[in-house]
Amino acid sequence: MTLANFDIELRLFIDAIFLKYHYDFRGYAEASLKRRLSSAMSRFNCTTLSQLQDKVLHDPAAFRAAINVLTVQVSEMFRDPTYFKALREEVVPILRTYPSLKIWVAGCSTGEEVYSLAILLREEGLLARALIYATDINDDALQKAEAGVYEVERLEGFTENHRLSGGHGPLSAHYTQAYGRVVFDKSLRQNVVFSDHSLATDSVFAEVQLVSCRNVLIYFDRELQNRAVDLFRDSLCRKGFLGLGMRESLHFYRNVASFKELVREQRLFQKESP
Questions:
Q1: What is the pLDDT of residues 85-134, one digit of tens each?
Q2: For helices 60-70 and 139-147, angle between their N-to-C axes, nearest 10 degrees
Q3: Structural domains present in the chain
Q4: Residue 212, helix vs strand vs coil
């Protein structure tokens, strides 16, 4: 297939997915989409995107499998521990001043960051008065997130990240281990709402004190990046906080004056007063 044909079929594929299943990838970075679709073609033994399109349009199970390739699900507990340490030191003291808290984890994937935040809030005495909205476009990922079950092989990394993040006490206080799996306490999920939400098509749904959307914007084109940050800005209360991934920034943002850098190295921002 020539590059020109691939580009044509890429646009047709994205439009078809939107029309059939209402998943909008039209604002995703093209280079990233091409890599992931090439992987999906190999997985389904397709030589062209047209063949893959035919499969996903006529087989919902094939579409769900393709979505798992198209949506990035790479995460870990307390990923980038210095980010969580900065939350403890710079953001938690201000969150303590609120009688109740609402937090939005956008693009929560399989839930590692959700449980990290829930544990952090519990350790800081804030979980009981907090409500965490955990959203993603991938239904399979959301189901895994709600289950809170992870492979035991990942536990060593989780534990070390928790320690480096300034965790209080052992991480083992928050899970049980059996049959090669780690299951995080159901009590951590009592204050979490898992829900489908697309940054490409959906709107603001709540006022929150903290939005954590890490390593998601890097997969969007500039227009969709701006749309997503508009949603975060409109969701945040006065002086609310925004956390991004280590490779992300707000330098591109058309309304960049709406935020100030709180901790530059850890990509923590605070909404400026209107």
A1: 999 999 999 999 999 999 999 999 999 999 999 999 999 999 999 999 99
A2: 70
A3: 3-70 (no CATH), 81-271 (3.40.50.150)
A4: strand
